[in-house]
Specification:
2 domains, two-stranded antiparallel ribbon, alpha+beta, 198 residues, 5 strands
């Protein structure tokens, strides 16, 4: 019989990179060089951050383009990028750079943010730990969901294809649940730090 599905939780740790962009050209220069953990954070970190009110865009790049560069065209294009459609963060980086470079070629001037509103590049690590919750049979899942934190739901459902596959599957004849072992090695060694007990 497969082992029970172990419910994990996660928390995000933010780390400064020292990189700031005051203009769209600054942004392109830094974005081409930033650590992939920074790309991950700015696309996925908002899902673990406390929010008040509605969020227009699910990534920080589109938010900055809209509110600090006042470039609605660029913000819509960046906001339309779905990070789950890319097999790795390097290809996601290339897509963002293509969008930014295309926009720069369309403009007569380079958009600048106010001096006190640069884009601040942050990188992150995600700490994963065991919650001690176990699901033995599919019918136990609804009750278990009520006990899960936002971090657990993020880890199970929202972690992108670039980082990990959906971390569980329902196996057999509908009688048991087991975890898949499909986390990509890059994310195990860099943005994700497994901690199995807390």
């Amino acid at each position: 019989m497969p082992e029970p599905f172990a419910v994990k939780d996660c928390a995000i740790i933010t780390l400064a990179t020292g990189r700031r962009a005051h203009s769209l050209t600054d942004f392109a220069t830094h974005f081409a060089q930033i650590d992939e953990a920074s790309i991950y954070y700015h696309f996925w970190g908002s899902r673990l951050r406390t929010k008040f009110g509605s969020i227009e865009f699910q990534n920080d790049f589109a938010q900055w383009a809209r509110h600090e560069l006042d470039d609605h065209v660029l913000s819509e294009r960046l906001g339309a990028i779905d990070p789950t459609q890319f097999p790795d963060l390097d290809q996601l980086r290339r897509e963002v750079l293509d969008v930014v470079e295309e926009r720069l070629s369309e403009l007569d001037h380079i958009p600048n943010a106010r001096h006190d509103k640069p884009f601040v590049f942050i990188r992150s690590q995600i700490v994963i730990f065991d919650t001690a919750l176990r699901v033995n049979r599919p019918e136990e899942l609804p009750q278990c969901l009520a006990q899960m934190s936002t971090g657990s739901l993020f880890f199970i459902l929202s972690t992108p294809a670039a980082a990990t596959k959906i971390p569980w599957t329902i196996c057999g004849a509908g009688s048991s649940i087991s975890r898949t072992a499909m986390t990509r090695s890059f994310f195990c060694s860099r943005p994700l730090i497994p901690i199995f007990k807390r």
